[in-house]
Amino acid sequence: MLHTINKSPFEKDSLTTCLRYAQKGASILFIEDAVYACTKGTQFEKDIHDHQGDIKFYVLGPDLEARGLDNSNLTTNIEIVDYKGFVKLVADNEKTQNWL
Amino acid sequence: MEEQESGIIKKFIYVNRKAPHGTIYAHEALEVVLIAAAFEQDVALAFIDDGVYQLKKGQNTDGIATKNFSKTFGALDMYDVEKLYVEKESLEARGLSEEDLSVDVEILPASDLKNLFNESEVFFNF
Amino acid sequence: MALEVNGRQIEVDEEGYLSNLNDWEKDIATVMAKEDDIELGDDHWEIINFLREYYEEYQIAPAVRVLTKAVGKKLGKEKGNSKYLYELFPYGPGKQACKFAGLPKPTGCV
Predict the structure, then answer these.
(1) Does the annotation mark C109 as catalytic?
(2) Predicted ipTM?
(3) Assuming Cys at both sites, which of B48, C17, C24, C108 could form a disulfide with B87, CB separation 3.0 to 4.6 Å?
């Protein structure tokens, strides 16, 4: 299962809820304002690290760049994908759930 | 454009709490600031919560095909908008510091911003 | 609405501003100026180029007041005043010069 999140974790609890429902083997892709969720030095870093054994985390590159962020701003083990990678994730996963 | 001649100057404060590109609020707020700058009021901008992300330097929106309005913050001083305040707590909660910002700002703790809000007369919240 | 330049149809809005900033080329400014009975000289181009650079840097078309100040800073006092700019662009240096430069109407102009 692929989960996408597009809201800032500081503004909405989409990430928290998504993490509560995501199962082992799932992928989570951060897009739009949700890209802030995987940056260094926030309260969400620990939540992500706690789940990295079971869940693979991705972030959409163009949305990072738009916000002045790059690899150096991200917490560990986050994979940056481009639009093609986004499509591939959707294709590789049988189902997709969008957390708004 | 006709400028207001009433001569009454009020303390305006724009309170920016939204991240820049996911919604239109941040861009709209900046448009309002620029339009209102023609009325020669005493203008201040406060960036708190996700609003601090608006000032992150190095933004490049080519990949999402929207306007990179973060560049416009650099023009504010030419519009005589010189008071930009960033809340210290919001910045720290996001792992950011002064060097991450694209323009000169004053970083203040919430306790100081609270006093600033007290002295302000007209509020625009985005 | 459209403007014909070198056989190309360029889309403009109801006030004559380019709909797509990337459509701009020098001949567009020349054609727009001709419609306003202005023949563009070096002094006009200096301001038009200045505006394009300003837009590139700040992503806005400056209000007249700001344009005047910025021109003064960059090109000198004798050019950074309304008299000079209005003589070049009689319909308003903000509105008219921005239009020729392919920029949107300045923020704050009605």
Answers:
(1) yes
(2) 0.92
(3) B48
